[in-house]
Fold this protein.
Amino acid sequence: MTKFNRIIILTGAGISAESGLDTFRDKGGIWEKYDLTQVATPEAFARDPDMVHEFYNLRRGMVKNVHPNPAHKALARLEQEYPGEILLVTQNVDDLHEKAGSKNICHMHGELGKVRCQACREVMMWWDDLDRHTDCPVCEKKGRIRPHIVWFGEIPFDLNKIGQYLENSDLFISIGTSGTVYPAAGFVQAAMDAGAHTVELNREPSDGYSLFEETHYGPATQVVPQYVEKLLKEAYA
Ligand code: OAD
């Protein structure tokens, strides 16, 4: 019999670190190299679209060349084999969960491989570079295409769906996130309020580690496959 029927998994940059993508707040991370107010806010885009496009063109280029690691693959296996519902909520804008085979995913901070037109609102898959003159292939307006990314000051995607799921979950697993950016940083409390068991899998204790009932520390490529193995074993015991 399964101990948990509805599992919600939150992932952050730490799960993709061993695939070769920088995290944000670790030493040498993205926010050490870039001022987020210059590249990741709607104000920055209005002021200097070239700088914002350059930042996301670079990141899009990097993501095109990396592969899912054993942690992404373990979560895809869990979704396939676990006899219960699983929702994967990621703060990551890369597509490594999809490449690993996960299907039920909310990209709450958007996706590097998508853009949207601010004129006609169409959301499109897009892996090429963008610039301030790029035409919208749907409405043909020039210069209205932006990355489909949630910038600071904007509302994350899928919050209603995530909130409803959290209210009814019985296991919450947080993986590779520093737990510093809200609303995601508040999910552990919401899960606890719903009576869920809470688990942190991270390289080291996050800011909110004391809220978790169970913790396992080490590289994601080790702790995530181990934890998934344990969940599957218990489910079929
Ligand atoms: P952070 O860079 O804040 O945190 C990364 C976490 O991953 C840290 O707790 C690290 O200890 C952990 N970590 C690093 N390498 C790891 C590894 N190999 N295995 C396991 N854990 C590892 O990244 P996020 O928490 O994802 O938002 O950041 C949250 C949001 O802040 C991002 O989505 C982004 C950023 O600003 C926006 O851009 C809107």
Notes: The two ends are 7 Å apart (CA to CA). The first strand starts at residue 6 and ends at 11. The pocket of 2'-O-acetyl adenosine-5-diphosphoribose is lined by residues 12-14, 17-18, 23-26, 29, 40, 91, 109, 150, 152, 176-178, 180-181, 202-204, 206, 219-220 (CB under 6 Å).
